[in-house]
Amino acid sequence: MFNVNSSFYKFLMALQAKLHAEFNLEALSPSACLLHADGMPDIVYYLCGAGERIAVDSTARCIHIDEDRGIKQPDLLLNRIAALAGLAQRIHARDTVVARIDKQMAMAFQEDHHLQVALPGKYRFGLFREGELVAVAVFSGGRKMDNKAADYRSYELLRFCHKQGMQVVGGFSKLIDAFQQAFDPGDIMTYADKDWTDGSSYRKTGFAIAGETSPQVFWVDTRTMQRYYEQALPVEIQQKPAEERRNRGFVPVYNSGSIKLVKAYKHA
C-alpha cells in the first residue's frame, strides 16, 4: 500500500490537469508508486526517504521524480513532463538565431527554466526567436587529455534547457554546432540524467555512450524540502552520522545515476 499524502495528491491532481489525462496508480512500496496513463510517460513517484530507485518493467518512457521536487518546483516539473509527453509549444531551430550570452543571462534563464542547480560555466550560447531567449547551452572550459595530441581539448556541456512550455526542434544540435564552430573541440562530453532519459536523444545528434555514473545521494530537509549535496549541507548536519541526520529531519534521496556521453570531432 502506497502512503498517499497531501503533497502527492496535489501533484497528481495538477499532473492530470496539465496533461489532460487520468493516471492509474500502482503501489511499488509504502513510499513509491507508479503512475500510468495511455500515451503518456510512466512516472515513478517517491516520497521523501523512499530509498533507492525502483526498476520498473515498462514499454513506455519511464521517469523518476521525488516529492521534494514537486513541492519546491511544481511548475518546472510539470512543464518538463508535459514536454516529454509532446504537449509543449514546438518551434523550429531554423526560426531562431544563435548567439553568445553572458553569465547573468545564462544563470537567470537556468534558474527560471531548469530543474537542476544553475551553473555559470565558461562559455554560454543561447537561441533567440524574435528577440526572446528560448534555449540555452552552458559549456566548461577546455581540458587537455593525456592520451591525445597537445592541442586536443575536451569540453563539457554542463547545462541545456528550453524555456518552460517550449521545445525548440533541432535546437540542441544548433547550439552544439555553434559551439563546435567557435572553439573547434576535440570532443564534447556531457552527462544525461537517467531519471529522465536513456540517452537516445543525445545519440541521435552524434553522441556515443562512454559509461555510467553510480546513483547520487542528496539530503532533503523535510521541514523546508530544501535539497542539499553532501558538501553543501549545513556544517552541523555534515558532522552527524546518517541516523542523527534523520532524527533532525534530513532524509537521503537517491537519483538513478547518469549516462556519460561523448561527441568526438578529432581522433588524434
Q: Topology as H/E string?
A: HEEEEHHEEHEEEEEHEHEEEHHEE
Reported by name, the CATH topology of the largest domain is Aminopeptidase
Low-confidence stretches: none
Helix content: 25-40%
Number of domains as seen in the coordinates: 3
The mean pLDDT is 96
What share of residues are in beta strands?
A: 25-35%
| Largest beta-sheet details | 8 strands, mixed
CATH superfamily of the largest domain: Gcn5-related N-acetyltransferase (GNAT)
Description:
With about 270 residues, the chain is α+β, with helices and mostly antiparallel strands. It has 3 domains: about 5-85, no CATH class; about 90-185, 3-Layer(aba) Sandwich (Aminopeptidase), CATH 3.40.630.30; about 185-268, no CATH class. The chain has 8 helices and 17 strands. It has helices spanning about 5-20, 65-70, 75-85, 105-115, 170-185, 200-205, 235-240, 240-245; strands spanning about 25-30, 30-35, 40-45, 60-65, 90, 95-100, 125-130, 130-140, 145, 155-160, 165-170, 185-195, 210-215, 215-220, 225-230, 250-255, 260-265. Strands 6, 7, 8, 9, 10, 12, 13 and 17 form an 8-stranded mixed sheet that branches. A 4-stranded mixed sheet has the order 1-2-3-4. A hairpin with a 2-residue loop joins β7 (about 125-130) and β8. α1 crosses α3. The radius of gyration is 20 Å and the shape is globular.
